[in-house]
UniProtKB/TrEMBL annotation:
The keyword Cell membrane does not apply. This is Diaminopimelate epimerase. The record marks 268 as: Important for dimerization. It comes from Povalibacter uvarum. NCBIfam families: DapF. Keywords: Amino-acid biosynthesis, Cytoplasm, Isomerase, Lysine biosynthesis. Belongs to the diaminopimelate epimerase family. One of its GO terms (cellular component) is cytosol. It is an enzyme of class 5 (isomerase). The gene is dapF. It catalyses: (2S,6S)-2,6-diaminopimelate = meso-2,6-diaminopimelate.
Length: 274
């Protein structure tokens, strides 16, 4: 089978995006994992599969797969890329998209950046798949001999966020996988390391579930700002510096929708035989 794809990225978080007429045409997890390999495949953090719309008033449904072949609910940088690709194809400036993690509205801006409505952050432990007897701002989490202080939030997908004094010295390689696979997270989790620079500026590194550390994670940026807001550390609009570049997140507060703005870049188009 010949697969035509578009290689895209948002702040270096990279994707292949392709159309499938139906779920039957979506490659299985093993095939996607092989394509994700950066030496023997195409190489990507996520595969984004475009399918015909499923819900009324939406333009496209997309499925998301991590580099390890696992299917996930949401991808923020991917949402901007899918939004830009589909909006340009339809010659539109805005779109209503749908995913396993819920509805995502998209706006192409005049400055070339893309804004997406990432929904309402959900701090309930059940939404995150986190084992806790009651909802809290911060939870102690035992990892080996250490007790970490983490926050947990769902942006459609699960996030653990911990504050660090400096992202450049954060132990992402060791704590990332330990928290990703911690038994208190029923479905594993993405792990964000958050450095608060000021009330309007943070630095962030994210160890992504099913991938490892990426150059940026859109939902991770949303999760970090939502957590920082809830802790009273951040204002409504926050600039997020990831390893691969900058996003702007705006979240008025509980019960409100959170918007993310950033770039969505097409790198090349290609075909591969499965
Ligand atoms: N890169 C993404 C997140 C992709 C999914 C994530 N790894 C998960 O397993 O939930 C983003 O930009 O949000």
């Amino acid at each position: 089978m010949l697969l035509r794809f578009t290689k895209m990225h948002g702040l270096g978080n990279d994707f292949i995006v392709f159309d499938a007429p139906s779920d039957d045409a979506v490659p299985d997890g093993a095939a996607l994992k092989q394509l994700a390999d950066r030496r023997t495949g195409i190489g990507f953090d996520q595969a984004l599969v475009l399918l015909p719309p499923r819900a009324k008033d939406t333009d496209v449904y997309y499925r998301i797969f991590n580099a390890d072949g696992s299917e996930v609910e949401q991808c923020g940088n991917g949402a901007r890329c899918v939004g830009k690709l589909v909006a340009e194809k339809l010659a539109r400036q805005d779109l209503h998209m749908d995913s396993l993690g819920g509805r995502v509205d998209v706006q192409l801006r005049k400055d070339g950046l893309v804004s997406v409505d990432m929904g309402i952050p959900d701090f309930t432990p059940a939404a995150v798949g986190f084992d806790a007897t009651r909802e809290a701002d911060v939870y102690p989490l035992r990892v080996g001999e250490s007790e970490l202080q983490i926050s947990a939030v769902s942006m459609g997908n699960p996030h653990a966020v911990m504050r660090v004094p400096s992202v450049s010295e954060a132990p992402v390689d060791t704590l990332g996988p330990a928290v990703e696979n911690h038994p208190r997270f029923a479905n594993r989790t993405n792990v964000g390391f958050l450095e608060v620079v000021s009330r309007t500026h943070i630095r962030l590194r994210v160890f992504e579930r099913g991938v490892g550390e990426t150059l940026a994670c859109g939902t991770g940026a949303c999760a970090a700002v939502a957590v920082g807001r809830r802790l009273g550390l951040l204002d409504e609009e926050v600039t997020v510096d990831a390893l691969g570049g900058r996003l702007v997140i705006r979240w008025p507060g509980p019960g409100e929708h959170l918007w993310m703005t950033g770039p969505a870049i097409t790198v090349f188009e290609g075909t591969v035989t499965l």
